[in-house]
Amino acid sequence: MTLDKPSVLLTGGAGYIGSHTYVALTEAGYRPVILDDFSNSHPVVLDRLAHLTGQRVLCERGDVLQTGMVAEVLKRYHCVAAVHFAGLKAVGESVQQPLRYYHTNVSGLLSLLQAMDSVDCRSVVFSSSATVYGDPASVPIKENFPCAPESPYARTKLACEDMLNSLAASNPAWRIGILRYFNPVGAHASGLIGEDPHGVPNNLMPYVTQVAVGMRDKLRVFGSDYPTPDGTGVRDYLHVTDLSEGHVAALRALIAKNQSFTVNLGTGEGISVLGVLSAFGRASGRPVPFEFVPRRAGDVAQYFADVSQAQALLGWRATRTIEDMCRDSWHWQQKNPDGYRTSMSSMQPASSHRNQEPAMPLQPTVAGTA
Ligand code: NAD
Ligand code: UFG
User: Relative to the CA of 205, which ligand 2 atom is closest?
Assistant: First the structure.
């Protein structure tokens, strides 16, 4: 193991956002170390990460709830910080299984923090969510807006934020970055890593790409009578690569500037469901069949972020457009019709992205899992 670069533990680093952040951190000169139990990810992502970065992937298979093991991993790799992605994220499922959500999300964070404390590693970036705001009284949403989480999932995120804030107040050695993500979508421009939902997607973008590729017949647009310009729900969609770069900026602010913070990560722009469909049509050349159906329970009409805090504190802002998000989601879907079950050698390069293929030849797995 090389010690020339600062090592950062990525819990849940094999997942959708974690894997993109792995690439961004590697490019920024960090040495990310993944800890993942693969409960919602596929080990093949490790091959893809090795291929993309040209480096051996450091990964430990394990559950973040095992505090002693987490402390061992932090010590073994001399981690200077952790980014905590590991958790459960389906709003509807959290209503059915609240105890499972509190256990994994809240006890999981507690376990990580206890492990970090025991080895004197006290810089942590936490994946929170815009869902903590609930239905905002106005938009754009600022970080000091009241939090009113509406689902058990959202309440676990707020409970985690409370735990982190209590810790920061107790000991100034803790440096804590809470990132409230808006709607992450898209995939790495290479088409090698992306979002791989199991079963029927709950979220808009993976559903749209599955309709476009012919796996599903049409999109059901939930609600056409919202008080928004075209009657459909408005969200702040954020390219996952921009989001991954936000984590690099957050770590730099924590480590170099010794700051703790809570910031929104979004673009600051609200886009309706019909707006996404039209951008997707432009980016892919494929119109997406859809029908209007009644509103989905629990959805709010619109939300988007005030992103001035992220710019001021982290020097970060999103640069990728909704067309970029749609193009890269579509590219990922085309190249990986079976998600990570698609083998790299059988992947079909999409013509518009050939110049973004990694130049490396295909290599055998170099990921080390324990
Ligand atoms: P994901 O499910 O793709 O990734 C989470 C990873 O954590 C998976 O690889 C899973 O195997 C792993 N994991 C789960 N429980 C674990 C445990 N106990 N120990 C070790 N590993 C475990 O999810 P994602 O979309 O990459 O989200 C990452 C984080 O960001 C989550 O905390 C999520 O709540 C938060 N978030 C996501 C979104 C979104 O829309 N994707 C929005 C806001 C916040
Ligand atoms: N939508 C449809 N049809 C679909 C899926 C979604 O019309 O098949 C609409 C929704 O009604 C909403 C918009 O598309 O107006 C976006 O819906 P998503 O499900 O993609 O995203 P949400 O804003 O509902 O929620 C997401 C994550 C949450 C997270 C929240 C804030 O799913 O976990 O963003 O980060 F908390």
Answer: 20
Is 65 within a domain?
Answer: yes
| Amino acid letter for position 184 | P
Atom of ligand 2 nearest to the CA of 272: 15
The reported pTM is 0.94
Query: Is 153 considered catalytic here?
Result: yes
Taking the CA of residue 91 as reference, the ligand 2 atom at the shortest distance is 33
Q: Are 331 and 191 in contact (CB under 8 A)?
A: yes
Task: Tell me, yes or no, whether 209 lies in a domain.
Answer: yes
Q: Kindly state if the Cβ of 325 falls inside 6 Å of ligand 2.
A: no
Q: For ligand 1, say whether the CB of 71 is within 6 Å of any of its atoms.
A: no
Residues 6+ apart with CB under 8 A from 60: 33, 34, 35, 36, 69, 73, 369, 370
For residue 320, being part of any structural domain is answered with yes
Cα pseudo-dihedral 70, 75, 78, 82, rounded to 10: 20
Q: What is the CATH number of the domain that holds 317?
A: 3.40.50.720
State the residue range of the domain holding 211: 7-341+351-368
In a domain, 1, yes or no: no
Q: Which of 102, 153, 181, 237 is catalytic?
A: 153
User: In this structure, which residue's CA is closest to atom 1 in ligand 1?
Assistant: 15
Q: How many domains does the chain have?
A: 1
Around Cβ 96, how many Cβ atoms within 10 Å? 10
Taking residue 32's Cβ as centre, other Cβ atoms within 10 Å add up to 29
Ligand 1 pocket mutation pick from 9, 11, 17 by most atoms within 8 angstroms of CB:
17
Q: Would you give per-residue pLDDT tens digits along the chain (370 residues)?
A: 556 899 999 999 999 999 999 999 999 999 999 999 999 999 999 999 999 999 999 999 999 999 999 999 999 999 999 999 999 999 999 999 999 999 999 999 999 999 999 999 999 999 999 999 999 999 999 999 999 999 999 999 999 999 999 999 999 999 999 999 999 999 999 999 999 998 899 999 999 999 999 999 999 999 999 999 999 999 999 999 999 999 999 999 998 888 899 999 999 999 999 999 999 999 999 999 999 999 998 899 999 999 999 999 999 999 999 999 999 999 999 999 989 987 776 665 543 332 222 222 222 223 433 2
Q: Is the CB of 17 under 6 A from ligand 2?
A: no
